[in-house]
Amino acid sequence: MAQPFVTIQNVRKSYWRESLEIPVLRNISFDIPTGEFLALMGPSGSGKTTILNLLAGIDRPSEGSIKIGDVEVSRLGEADLSRWRSLHVGFIFQFYNLMPVLTAFENVELPLLLTKLSKAERKKQVETALSIVGLEDRIHHYPNQLSGGQEQRVAIARAIVTDPDLLLADEPTGDLDRVSAESVMDLLSRLNKEYKKTIVMVTHDPRAAEKANVIRHLEKGELENGNNR
Q: 3-state class of 141 per DSSP?
């Protein structure tokens, strides 16, 4: 049995609208083993994306703790949290979030500009990431010269270029046609199986969720038991 890589313990999250408290997550506790591919499903507003944001350190829990590896990220200060995130987390968005004025190479290189790598070292890592996602022949193309599926692959290459421990994917196939969606999901499955990446994915798509090892459902901020595949 793999050791827990992520431990979420007694996490509550609320937002405030003036004096009104709006609970989003209600006492969530679960572990994610190293190398797991977890799909989170549930209706809109159930708290799925909030969990991703908490795991990435983009948001903080109102109560409870989140430990990833040997780091309790919920207790890190902003500077340490930003440094930790840049090294250990890759985020994949539904709408790619690519810079339209940059080439595929330049978009993927962006996270590396915050590191101390030399230009030659950055070039090697970018080319490796684009090769893994099958876009070595599109390295100098701009986003408007790529299909939606290719844009998402560039976004995945950007997410993995720093070799993070944890990949977080928020509706990665939500803006894609069926063929492109299947291709992207095959890539995520390969990153999990061949490269041993721990992946947490939010999705509404049952076909996408089928690629995960475990599917868990959120309902009104509460987590139901997972289904191993």
A: coil
